[in-house]
Amino acid sequence: MISLHSLALPTAILIVVAITSSLRRRRTLPSPPNPPCIPFLGNYLSLPVRQPWTTYAEWSKTLHSDVVSIWVFGRLSIVVNTKEAAKELLERRSAKYSDRPFPIMTEMMGWAWATSLMPYTNAWRVRRRILHKTFHAAAALTYRPHQRAEVHKMLKRVYGDPQHFAYHVRSMAASIAMTIAYGVMEPHESDKILDIAETSVTMFSNAVFPGAAVVNALPFLRHLPAWFPGMGFKPYAQKCSELAMDMRDLPWEFFKKGLTDDASGFSMASQLSSKVEKHHSKEDREQAMKDACAVTYAAGADTTVSVLSTSILALLLHPGVQYRAQQEIEGVVGRQRLPTFEDRDSLPYVEAVYREILRWKPVTPLSVSRSVLEDDVYEGKFIPKGTEVFPNVWAMLHNPTEYPDPEAFSPSASYNPMAKDEKGEDIIVNPEYTDGVISHPLPFRCGFTPRDEQAEILLSRLGEADYEGLLLLT
Ligand code: HEM
Questions:
Q1: pTM of the full predicted structure?
Q2: In whole angstroms, how far apart are CA 231 and each of 208, 269, 347, 463?
Q3: Are 386 and 460 within 8 A, CB to CB?
């Protein structure tokens, strides 16, 4: 959260805001319940900084309401904490709940081009169509050979350099997303762009949750000079904006200069060049393509890093689960090859592990917020047009009624001996996670060793045309 507690705005401004907000709130029905508010600031001072999704889930319990309100300087956000409420509001009433809030910081931080953040406009529809063409179910299958090749490359690197497994996982995720979007890029360039993207995503994350930046609630603040007390958000937004622009523009420039390797015309950028709607001007067309490619990279790389890091962490912490998954793979696949996408249906336990990983530590715990297009009433509570809506995915996936021990990682109740490091000593890992839109485990140690002689033989053949091998996380 950007600290703006030093904000020393004249009391007069606050009074104007308070009057405006009370006029806005004048209506007959109450809004969904909220934690105690104080005048002018609303819930601003009690907003959580660490893992906000857990606090919102607590508020939902304490207030006995699936949907809770958060007021910050007269601006209302609601958090939807149960699947039932999410289905009703976000699915059945999707026509009213599918806009995007577009807080002022999104624009100031240079993220206005990202489809997932754009309001429901024609520009959004053009980009959405492009993304649909690239990612509809059948199109997604065409990326499999490339994904598989990248996974093999990553395994080979982890085998040769297990200490830096996190780096290799990150490079693989970046390479998959980057290649889908632009074609194969030099690993060095791809890493550089991933650095930029990660920093920009983190900065963006820190400024979009309720109350994170007061300018979202009081847009006129952007017009005050940078030297004015509490204007720290301005240089912050400027820095983020530069990064977001680089993230969008640099890889596109690479593609245009022919510096990406895409001889088969496989990448989204190549495919799109000839396909985007004819009636748009060349500039519009190029802008839309550029945006769609960049959002693919921004949305695909960091999310994959997060989920793979959690997968490794979960298997490290639960060797029993790892063992059982390995047994299942061995029973179905044997020892002569690695599993493929085609084996998925025959591996129910591995499927359960994968789903449990996504449930245990959801990658986007508060998803991507939406905005209400017109006034609505839910269970007798008034939700005005323009309200920002946060689906609390974490709360839905940690609901004790559905998951009796929600914090436990339990695709099964198998035994859980302690993981060991290379010296045979217990590895103590306390899983801790970052707080942003995309939540990651903090760095942790993990060893990778071939599990037996057979695996060692297979791994030693890495680099041959079709190497085989399985790694054991210890
Ligand atoms: C576990 C991994 C992933 C998670 C949890 C995830 C989650 C999300 C979420 C929550 C959104 C916003 C949905 C919305 O409210 O509209 C989104 C959008 C998007 N994701 Fe993913 N994602 C993942 C992986 C990927 C990958 C691998 C790619 C592509 C390489 C990708 C491409 C996109 C794109 C292009 C959008 C924007 C779609 C639009 O705005 O129309 N995602 N993702």
A1: 0.84
A2: 16, 39, 54, 54
A3: no
Name which residue sits closest to atom 43 of ligand 1, judged by CA.
299
As a whole number of angstroms, the distance between CA 463 and CA 474 comes to 24
Q: How far is the CA of 338 from the centre of ligand 1 (A)?
A: 27
For residue 15, the CA-to-ligand 1 centroid distance in Å is: 41
Cα four-point dihedral sign 64, 208, 169, 165: negative
Domains and CATH numbers, the chain: 1-101+369-411 (3.30.43.20), 124-205+223-361+413-473 (1.10.630.10)
Q: Whose CA is nearest to atom 3 of ligand 1?
A: 303
Nearest to 100 by CA among 125, 68, 83, 132: 125
Closest ligand 1 atom, CA of 115? Answer: 40
Q: Which atom of ligand 1 is nearest to the CA of 177?
A: 30
Rounded CA gap, 266 and 281, in Å? 25
**What is the strand order of the sheet 75-80 is part of?**
67-72, 75-80, 388-391, 370-371
Tokens of residue 193, six digits: 């762009």
Strand 388-391 vs strand 370-371: parallel, antiparallel, or unpaired? antiparallel
Give the distance between the most distant pair of CA atoms in the chain: 75
Question: What three-state secondary structure class fits 374?
Answer: coil
SS3 354: helix
26-75 per-position pLDDT tens digit: 458 999 999 999 998 999 999 998 999 999 999 999 999 999 999 999 99
Q: How far apart are the CA of 335 and the centre of ligand 1, in A?
A: 34
pLDDT for the residue 466 = 41
**Stated length of the chain:** 474
By most ligand atoms within 8 Å of CB, the mutation choice from 127, 303, 354, 433 for ligand 1 is: 303
Q: Which atom of ligand 1 is nearest to the CA of 301?
A: 27
pLDDT of residue 235: 93
